[in-house]
Design goal:
The complex is a heterodimer of chains A (about 50) and B (about 325).
Chain A (H helix, E strand, L loop, with lengths): L1 H27 L6 E8 L7
Chain B lengths: L1 E6 L3 H11 L4 E7 L3 H11 L3 E3 L14 E4 L5 H12 L3 E3 L4 H8 L2 H7 L2 E4 L7 H10 L4 E10 L4 H12 L3 E4 L2 E4 L7 E4 L6 E7 L3 H7 L5 E7 L18 E12 L2 E12 H17 L11 E4 H4 L2 H10 L4 E8 L2
Parallel strand pairs in B: 1-2, 1-4, 2-3, 4-5, 5-6, 6-15, 7-12
Antiparallel strand pairs in B: 7-13, 8-9, 8-12, 10-11, 11-12, 13-14, 14-16
The chains are: A alpha+beta (about 50), B alpha/beta (about 325).
């Protein structure tokens, strides 16, 4: 019973640490997501926009 | 009317020669190559404006040269640029080799003191990538992040540079300083225009310093190269294994007012053709034959530091090298 409790507690610590690490990565992030849906359009003169 | 000395008649040099002899304002093209037979072959195909010269790096420039264009294996560029500086003649190099680019940048003071413009890395990337970065930067209030990716190698020398770059640890630009990565890796799937599409690319240091010429005080910049398949493994083998598609993707993040947005440009062409065309337009710009494409200054600069992006892109499009923009929506 004691061993099961210890394993359960360790599991909780691991899950908690993973959640904190995930949260930190999400907060820090790169600040944006590049476009992924769409297509290429040829640029045309005179502005090439 | 101007005279250009083109050193190197390989994959890139031959394409650059074609573009130069078809440029109004270039009256004479002198071609030199370490392999005289190759120079003669290219020269014969270029018509009466082209002339073969027996010239080696380290010698005095031939009389009447207005601009020197280099399409040579890594390392030779430095000697040739020194020769050009000794003669007080503007010069452009298509090298994409890290060590060569850094050595050429060290000649900045000498070029500035001589009053001569030296353009460094006038190829696909570095080169066209710097033009596109500068073009994107012109549409932002401020740019903070630039990510360039290139697929393809223009000739044997370029393929060798790619191999060396991918064997190294790679680097990235942080607050204007090139920082070496701790270990090799960081492979990322990059989406180029069709038909190249998605290719794995790894971070390299080739031309990172030149990004700061396009965007001074850039906070973060990366350049990635794709690892090309070994031609020997394909079957049946191509007669010209280097004449493959090359592609470029330039992602620039910046602010317009309060919003932070990306602009993604792409280009696709035969790698040697695109590289040779960029080299030829730059040489013609330095010679004054295409006066609107560059704003030359004394010193050594990447293309992003001296280019007039719209005029350069217009000239590029006129010669068949087209650029595209990715129109999409961010998906979180």
């Amino acid at each position: 019973m004691l061993r099961a409790m210890r394993a359960f507690r360790r599991g909780l610590i691991v899950v908690g640490a993973a959640a904190i690490a995930g949260l930190l990565m999400r907060v820090r992030g790169k600040g944006g997501v590049p476009p992924t849906n769409g297509g290429w359009r040829e640029l045309e003169a005179p502005d090439f926009r | 009317m101007s005279t250009v000395l083109l050193v190197g008649a390989g994959a890139v040099g031959a394409r650059a020669a074609r573009q130069l002899v078809e440029t109004t304002g270039i009256s004479r093209l002198l071609i030199a190559d370490a392999r005289p037979a190759r120079a003669a072959e290219v020269g014969a195909a270029m018509g009466e404006r082209a002339e073969i010269v027996d010239w080696q790096p380290g010698n005095t420039l031939p009389d009447g040269v207005d601009v020197v264009a280099c399409a040579v294996p890594a390392g030779d560029d430095v000697t040739i640029v020194r020769d050009a500086l000794d003669a007080g003649v503007p010069c452009v190099s298509a090298s994409d080799d890290t060590a060569t680019i850094q050595e050429l940048l060290e000649l900045h003071s000498a070029a500035r003191d001589t009053g001569v413009c030296v353009v460094i890395g006038a190829g696909l990337a570095p080169g066209l990538s710097d033009v596109l970065v500068r073009h994107a930067a012109d549409s932002f209030d401020a740019v903070d992040d630039v990510n360039v990716a290139r697929w393809g190698a223009a000739g044997e020398a370029s393929a060798s540079s790619v191999r060396v770059a991918l064997g190294d640890r790679g680097a990235e630009l942080r607050d204007g300083t090139v920082v070496e990565l701790r270990k090799r890796g960081g492979e990322e799937l990059v989406w180029f225009p069709n038909p190249v599409d998605a290719r794995p690319c790894e971070p390299v240091g080739n031309g990172l310093e030149l990004l700061t010429h396009a965007v001074p005080k850039l906070a973060r910049g990366t350049i990635r190269f794709g690892r090309a398949d070994k031609p020997a493994r394909s079957w049946p083998r191509r007669s010209d294994p280097m004449n493959e598609w090359g592609a470029l993707r330039v992602e620039v993040w910046g602010r317009r007012g309060p919003a932070r947005e990306p602009v993604v440009f792409g280009a696709i062409d035969r790698t040697a053709t695109a590289t040779g065309t960029v080299l030829a337009i730059t040489a013609a710009g330095l010679a004054g034959a295409l006066p609107t494409v560059l704003v030359p200054r004394a010193g050594g600069f990447g293309l992003g530091g001296v280019v007039e992006p719209r005029a350069f892109l217009a000239e590029l499009a006129r010669r068949g090298v087209k650029v595209a923009i990715f129109e999409g929506v961010p998906v979180a």
